[in-house]
Amino acid sequence: MLRHIYIFLILLIFCLAADATETPDYTFTSYNSDFGFVQKEVMKIIQDRNGQMWFATWDGLYRFDGFSFSNYKVRPGDGIRLESISEDGDNIWMRGYNGTISRFSKHTTRIDNLPMQNYVAQKELSLPGGGIAVRMADGRVVVAKVDRNSDNISARVVFGMKGVEVKRIVVGSNGILWILTSRGVWQYAPGSGKLKRLFGGMECQGMTGSRGKSVFCCSGGHYIIYTGGGRITKRKLPTSAAVSSAAFLPGGRMIFATLGDGLYITGRTNNVERHLTAANSVLSSDRVSELEQDRFGDVWFCTNRPGVMHYRHATDELQCLNLQGEFSGDPSMWRNDMKIVEDSHGKLWLTPSGNGMAMYDR
Questions:
Q1: What is the distance in angstroms between the CA of the first residue and the CA of the last residue of the chain?
Q2: Rounded distance between C-alpha atoms, residue 282 and residue 192, angstroms
Q3: Of 3, 217, 287, 302, which residue has the fewest beta carbons closer than 10 angstroms?
Q4: Of the listed ranges 73-77, 146-150, 290-294, the one predicted with least confidence
């Protein structure tokens, strides 16, 4: 019964004491099964180009049109345990718990499987020109597309090298597919089909870009700055921990996350301005794997401890937000891969590793 009466109950409380005049107002929204959503295990949230919200759950694919939910499965009564979804305009691409990829057509509501066998997909990303890029467990990267005339799916391997582990794939704003590996970074152009190595010699597992500049997060405290003109600059933070994620802040500053040494904030000249750890701040853990940034430039992330971390760049303040209600206080339910999505209205949709879902409205 509890499972059917909860959804979206959110209460955000600041862990830091703050002046009441500086504390934003929060809107609390509660939905229940009367709206057609009864699933707690939400694994990913996206907003499509029409403004509708889509949810990957352990009970298949859900769509929210602003009023009610719709659920889609291969066959009525089937439970499709989804881990992730991506949208390319006409289609919602789904990655199942068992590593399979399937396509849901928004026009026909038909679901088709990727025409490949003996594969385990670990990540999928939509491509600006249509289709998706898929990172496979065996080190291959596959590009899949739907033919507009036949509506059939095609798939081809665009990367795969013996002894090279693919850590992450990232799609740039220009449509370039970046392949981050244990031995450097490659770039693949879907339009021309060309594959080019950018640099090697170190493991890379994170990337961010802004205004013609890309920053790659690497092992041993290193990060690589790449500009549109082809210039590559190697930098190092004062740590041996791997740099896992980064985000550009207003004023030419940056924030870096590490796997074991907290957060580093650098200035315009790449000098370290602040080093935030669990020992000197409200940071709940020194291991941070992924940063998400909203339209205001604020940074959000989750660690392997209960709560959501929020860095406010305007005040240079790190806050800990506790999600109350149906969210578990068990640390084992809070991994450091929280999904945080900002919709076109500025609302944040949060789901901490299948531990429920909340909507935060400023």
A1: 31
A2: 48
A3: 3
A4: 73-77
pLDDT band, very low/low/confident/very high, at 334 (cuts 50, 70, 90): low
CB atoms within 10 A of CB 187: 17
Nearest C-alpha neighbor of 95 from the set 105, 85, 104? 85
For the segment 267-280, what is each residue's pLDDT rounded down to a tens digit? 999 999 999 999 99
Cα–Cα dist 32/28, whole Å: 14
User: Which two three-digit tokens encode residue 253?
Assistant: 């500053």
What whole-number distance in Å separates Cα of residue 39 and Cα of residue 275?
A: 39
Residue 194 CB burial class (10 angstroms; 0-12, 13-18, ≥19)? exposed
- Calpha distance 327→315 (Å, rounded): 28
Alpha-carbon torsion 197, 203, 208, 212, what sign? negative
Alpha carbon 187 to its chain's center = 20
Residues 6+ apart with CB under 8 A from 302: 290, 308, 309, 334, 335, 336, 337, 338, 340, 352, 353
Gyration radius of the chain over CA positions: 21
Q: How many CB atoms lie within 10 A of CB 7?
A: 24
> Do the beta carbons of residue 104 and residue 89 sit within 8 Å?
no
Please, are residues 15 and 54 in contact by the beta-carbon 8 Å criterion?
no
Query: What's the CA gap between 358 and 283, in Å, rounded?
Result: 21
| DSSP symbols for 70-99 | EEE-SSTT----EEEEEE-SSEEEEEETTS
Q: Are 232 and 216 in contact (CB under 8 A)?
A: no
DSSP letter at 154 equals E
DSSP string, 179-247: EEETTEEEEEETTTTEEEEEE-SS-EEEEEEETTEEEEEEGGGEEEEEETTS-EEEEE-S-SSPEEEEE
Q: Lowest-confidence range among 11-20, 239-248, 318-327?
A: 11-20
Quick one: average pLDDT of 21-44? 53
Helices of type H across the chain: 2-5
